[in-house]
Each structure stands twice: as structure tokens, then as C-alpha cells.
Amino acid sequence: MYDVIIIGAGVSGAASAREISRYKVRACVLEKEEDVCCGTSKANSAIVHAGYDAKNGSLMAKLNVEGSKMMAKLAKDLDFEFIQNGSLVVCTEEGNRPELEALLEQGRKNGVEGLRIVEREELLAMEPNISDGAVAALYAPTGGIVCPFNLNIALAENAFANGVEFQFNTEVEGIERLEGGFRIKTNQGVYEAKCVVNAAGVYADKIHNMVSEQRMTIIPRRGDYYLLDKAAGGHVTRTIFALPNKYGKGVLVSPTVHGNLIVGPTAIDIQDKEGVNTTREGLDEAAEKSARTVKDVPLRQAITSFAGLRAHEEGHEFIIGELKEAPGFVDCAGIESPGLTSSPAIGRMVADTVKGILGLEEREDFIATRKGVLNPEKLSMEERNALIKKQPAYGNIICRCEMVTEGEILDAIHRPLGAKSLDGVKRRTRAGMGRCQAGFCSPRTMEILSRELKLDMEKITKSGGGSVIVVGTNKDRI
Questions:
Q1: What CATH architecture is 82-145+219-309?
Q2: From the centroid of its chain, how far is CA 340?
Q3: Is the sign of the CA dihedral 335, 340, 346, 347 positive or negative?
Q4: What average pLDDT does the segment 209-215 reach?
Q5: N or C: which end of the chain has fewer CB within 10 A?
Q6: Neighbours of 11 (CB within 10 A)
Q7: Measured distance CA(142)–CA(84) in Å, rounded
Q8: Residue 49 annotated as catalytic
Q9: Cα 320 to Cα 386: distance, rounded to the nearest angstrom
Q10: What is the pLDDT of residues 17-31, one digit of tens each?
Q11: Which listed residue (49, 208, 235, 312) is catalytic?
Q12: Beta strands 404-405; 397-399: pairing state
């Protein structure tokens, strides 16, 4: 029997696993997909929110500010991309100034540092492409941008290095209460644990309702995005928001840590928990709303569009804590924006809860750091030449758009919790994320996966499951 089983390997589950691994504990993460970061955590705005827009006194506000303050050190310790570029909430009508000032006051009450309102002249100097209708903006210098994939992967890898087990392609089908624990039925067999953490994203209600008669409902809230080429990455330097409404922070325009420009998301409540298809209406809405805050957004330079789902709970609040009606079962649900920002603090809160339930002792040999996939572009020419001489694979470019080498892909495959699919490689190295969207590098990446994993090409998938790429050979069809 495990001490703790965490259901879900998204950013909340991975952060919880890492923090729990600080203790003397036998822990396991169950994930229904083939890799970490396959749900909400892989498709979002990649923003580290300052924390001014969550309601004062809410758990969401508290964990947002805490998580934001933790992010810089976490990025250094776990070696993932994070840039504190600041954010602007733009007011486009003088009549809405009181709402902007209220947001400023709320942010200050939440503990956000450095907040101030900038007037149009200063705003234009900061962002020349700001909308002609902009009259003022709330400036939050602590806002930032992050790589959501590498944040999630880094947390999971570090948890794994500290002894947490991960079981993929393992979907929870039922949970039974035992004396002093739980029996979890999955498609891969039965697991038992003294304590269960429910970090299942948009499926958190399904997991919760297996053990509680107090029903929970998570609404999948779809957001459509454009991702623009790196040539458009400098259109703005900060993250640009509109004044929030009842559906959230609205459509943003922001640079990414990799130099692209992202536009979105929309906020459309749907029923399908797998409904990550974009729609013409959604993308048109993102385009129209982005123009209210930023002019001349070069959408013709879009290299892809995508949609993500937020795990929206009707009360618009994080639900984190042990169930009174099911002692030992800990919900980590309703984790929508600013969930990515809050994840370090969420993990710490979940771990504290589990520690209290099980009476865990801290370990002395916790490994607090992790190195990511080596990026040769960050080396000097002398260092890079020495690397290639020692490991020639780093001199073989596989993805021309992002200049990703074979050496990086090999690292992604063979590191802890390594990549097993094209998307797994993409999230760890950016191979396939560039201008041609994997049109050139997919076959070569598949060859490397096939060789290194010792699998036939017909078994290499885009993202696990039935997403095979090769279904036969030309000769088979003659």
C-alpha cells in the first residue's frame, strides 16, 4: 500500500508530488495519458499572473501571490524558462477608470508589489503598439511569462528523482474506501493508498464524486488561441490584458519565453471534457478582442492555433483540502487560471495537508535541483564545439525552425520520465513547434524515437493512445 497516490500529472499534481517527496513517504502518480502535461497544463496562456484580479481573501488570491513570488527561485532550481516581463491591464474608456482603480486597490490588498496606474503618454512609451483607444493601464512589474511544459516536466522529474513513482496510461475507474485507506481501480489494475490527492483537472469532479455524495461539477471552459511566428514576437514586450469581466481576464496579447507572440484565450463553456478543437467563431473572437488593447496585431503571421480547457468550478475558487466525509481524500480541484502561477504554492498546501493526515517526517536527502534538456545555443562557440566533438549528435540539426539537435532529442528520450511520442519530444525540446509546425522534422524525430525506444515506426504516436502516424507502407497498398 502506498502512503499517497496522486491522480493527475498536470502542473498541480506534479507540484504536489514534488512537495510531498520532501518527506519520508511512498508515493505514486497515476496519469491516464501517456506523459505528464497532457491536459490543461499543456494549453494555456503561459502567464505568471501578479495576483491583482482574484478576490481579496480568496484562496485563489493567496496562492496566486505566493506562487508568483516562488517562481523565480523555482525556475533557477529546476532549470526552466521564466521571464518577469511585467503586465498591463488596459482601460480603453475613461468611464471605466473606477474599475481600473478598484483593481489596483484589490491588488494591493492581495499583497502584489509595485502596482501603479500609468497614463496614456507613459503607456505609449512602454508599448508603442498599444490601442489608440487606451487611456490608462494598471502596471504590474511582477507579472511574468513561463514555459508551461518545462515547468510541469521539471516538477515531475524532480519528484521522480526524489522517489515518487509515475504510472502512465492508467485511468482511474473507481475508488473504494478501506479501513485506513482507499482502493483505486484502474484500467491497469488495482492500487491502494492511505491517502489520495485528486488533481485530475477537468475530471476532478468525476474523481471527487466517486467518494463523496456532496457532488462537484467542473465545467470545461474552452479557450482559443493564436500562436504567431517569432518575427511577430516583439510586437509587445509585456503581457497586455483588457479589464477583467465575469469570464476572467479576457483576451491577452503577450510575448512568450521562446520569442513568439500569443493571442487569446476566449472563454466558452462546453460539455465535452476533451473538446480542445478550435472554432472559426472562437478564433474570430480572439482576433476582434485583441484589437481592443493592441493595434495591428500581425495575425497573418500565425503559425498555428490551438485550444485549451480550464477546469472551471461555479464558485470560481480553488478547492483544496481533505474531505470530511472521506478522511484521507484530498481535493485539488477547480484549478483554473491562475492555476499555473499558483502551482508551487498549491503543491506546498497539498503537501502540508497530507503531512497533517499521515504525520510525515521530513527527509534529509531531498534533491532540490534539476537540470533540463541541454540547449547548445546557450553555450559559447568554444563550449559548443567541444560538446559536438565529444557527442557528435549535438552537431546534427533535426528541427531547422527551432534549431533542435539530435543530441537534445536523445536527452529528452532518455532522461527521467522521458519522451515516448512526438508531442513528448516537442514539449521537452521544441522540435516541431516552429514555423513549419513539424512538417520537416517529424519523420526524422520518429526515426530517432523508433531507434531509441526499439519500436517499429508503426507504433510511434503523436501523443500516445491511437494517435499513430504510420499505418502501413506504400508497397502494402499496391
A1: 2-Layer Sandwich (3.30)
A2: 6
A3: positive
A4: 97
A5: C
A6: 33
A7: 6
A8: yes
A9: 49
A10: 999 999 999 999 999
A11: 49
A12: antiparallel
Q: What's the confidence (pLDDT) of residue 271?
A: 96
CA distances from 211 to 14, 216, 317 (A): 22, 11, 21
Residue 169 pLDDT:
98
Q: Please state, in angstroms and rounded to a whole number, the distance separating the CA atoms of residues 275 and 222.
A: 8
What residue spans of 249-366 are helical by DSSP H? 280-290, 339-358
| Identity of the amino acid at 422 | L
Question: What is the rounded distance in angstroms from the CA atom of residue 404 to the CA atom of residue 397?
Answer: 6
The model's confidence at residue 472, banded by pLDDT at 50, 70 and 90, is: confident
* Alpha carbon distance 380, 304 (integer Å): 32
Those residues whose C-beta lies under 8 Å from the C-beta of residue 274, and which sit 6 or more positions away, are none
Spatial neighbors of 205 by CB under 8 A, at least 6 apart, are 215, 216, 217, 218, 333
Written in H, E and C, the secondary structure of 285-303 is: HHHHHHCCCECCCCHHHEE
Going by pLDDT thresholds of 50, 70 and 90, the confidence category of residue 247 is low
Q: Max Cα separation, the chain?
A: 71
* Residues composing the chain: 478
